[in-house]
Amino acid sequence: MPVPIILGVIAGGAALYGAVKGVKGAIDHRDAKDINENSQSMVDTANRRVDEQRKATNAVLQDYGGRKLRAFNGIIADFIDTFARLKNVDTIHTPELDKLSLGGFSTLSLDGLKSDYELLKSSGLGLGAGLGGGAALAFGAYNGTMLLAAASTGTAISTLSGAAATNATLAWLGGGSLAVGGGGMALGSMVLGGIVAGPALAIFGHIVGNKGEEALNNARSDQELARTIRDEAKLMVGKLEAIETISSFANSTFSKVSTHLRHAVYDLKKLIDVEGENYQVLSSEGRETVFRSVKFAQLIKAMIDTPILDQDGNLVLSTEKRLQEIKASLA
After folding, report:
1. Which residues 6+ apart lie within 8 Å of 304 measured at CB?
2. Which of 13, 36, 48, 228 could potentially form a cystine with 204 if both were Cys, beta carbons 3.0 to 4.6 Å apart?
3. HEC letters along the chain
4. pLDDT at 285 over 90
C-alpha cells in the first residue's frame, strides 16, 4: 500500500478515535454533572432535615424550661409560703412515694426547697424575670442540681454562660449553624452520640478543565460521601426526635403535677383558715390535705431534679421510666 494511503488511513483512524473520545468525554461530563447535582440535593435535604428537627427539639426543651421556671416562681413559691405557716410539723412520710426514693418531707425539706428558690432568684431568675433562650434551654435540659451548682459558683443562670458553654449540645441546639467549619453538623453529630459527619460537600468535583473520565470518578466519590452524610443525618434526626419526645412527655407531665399542686395548695390555705396552723391538732381529713400538698410538691421537685440530658449532652435513658413513675403517682 502506498505510503500516502497508509498515512491517510492512520489520520482517519486518529480522527475517528478523537471523535469517539470527545463524545465519551462529553457524556462523562454530563453524567458527572447529574451525579453532582443529585449528591448536592441529597446533602441539602439531609442538612435541612437535621436543622428542622434541631429547631423543633430546641423549642420543646425551651418550653419545658420555661414551665419549670414559672412553677418555681409561682406555685412552688406559693406552696413554700403556705406550708411554712404550719406549726409542729413532724416529718411527713408518704409511703406511696417511697418507691420513688423521695423520702419524707419536713421543715428541713422545706428549708432546702426555700434555699433553692432563693438561689434561683439571686441568680437572675426571680419573680417576673425574663428567661433568655439559653437559660430556658438549659433549665429544660438539666436537673436542678446541675443548675444550682452553676449558680453557686456565681454563674448567672439567666445567661447560662457557664453551663451552656460546657455543653456543646445545648450550644448547638440553641442555634448552631450547619455551615462547614462552623462546628455545625459535625459538632451536633459528635455531641449527640459520637457520630462523625463528613463535610457538607459545599463544592463537588470540578468539571471544567478536568478530563471527562476524571470528573466522573470525582463525582462518584463525592456521591459516596453524600450518602454517608445522608445516613449520619438520619441517625442524628433520630436522636433529636428521641430528645423531643421525652421533653414533650416531661412537659405534659409537669403541667399535670403543677395543676394538682395548685389545687392542693388552695385546699391547704382553706384548711389553715378553718382549723388553724397547729399540725398536731388537725383532723384526719386536715392531715390528708397536708399530705396531698406535700405529695405533689415532692413530685414537682422530683421532676425538677430529673434531667433530660446529661452533662455531655446525651439523652438520659432512665428519664422516661422516672417520668412514667411520677405520672403513675398522680392517681
Report:
1. 68, 71, 72, 143, 144
2. 36
3. CCHHHHHHHHHHHHHHHHHHHHHHHHHHHHHHHHHHHHHHHHHHHHHHHHHHHHHHHHHHHHHHHHHHHHHHHHHHHHHHHHHCCCECCCCECCHHHHCCCCCCECHHHHHHHHHHHHHHHHHHHCCCCCCCHHHHHHHHHCCHHHHHHHHHCCCCCCCCHHHHHHCHHHHHHCCCCCCCCCCHHHHHHHHCCCCCCCCCCCCCCCCCCCCHHHHHHHHHHHHHHHHHHHHHHHHHHHHHHHHHHHHHHHHHHHHHHHHHHHHHHHHHHHHHHHHCCEHHHCCHHHHHHHHHHHHHHHHHHHHHCCCCECCCCCECCCHHHHHHHHHHCCC
4. yes
pLDDT at 243: 93
Residue 301: predicted pLDDT: 84
pLDDT value of position 275: 93
Characterise 276 by phi-psi region: left (phi > 0), alpha (psi -120 to 50), beta (else). left
Judge whether residue 16 has pLDDT over 60: no
Range of the domain at 11: 3-328
pTM: 0.77
Domain count, the chain: 1
Could you give the CA distance from residue 149 to residue 114 in angstroms, rounded to a whole number? 16
CA 126 → CA 6, 102, 122, 130, 157, distances in Å? 98, 26, 7, 9, 11
Cα separation of 212 and 27, whole Å?
Answer: 8
pLDDT confidence tier of residue 2, bands split at 50, 70 and 90: low
Average pLDDT over the chain, rounded to whole?
73
Cell of 258: 403543677
Query: What are the residues whose beta carbons fall under 8 Å from the beta carbon of 113, sequence distance 6 or more?
Result: 76, 80, 297, 301
Q: Is the pLDDT of residue 204 over 60?
A: no
Helix 3-71 with 284-304: angle, nearest 10 deg = 150
Which range is least confidently modeled, 57-66, 72-81, 123-132, 296-305?
123-132
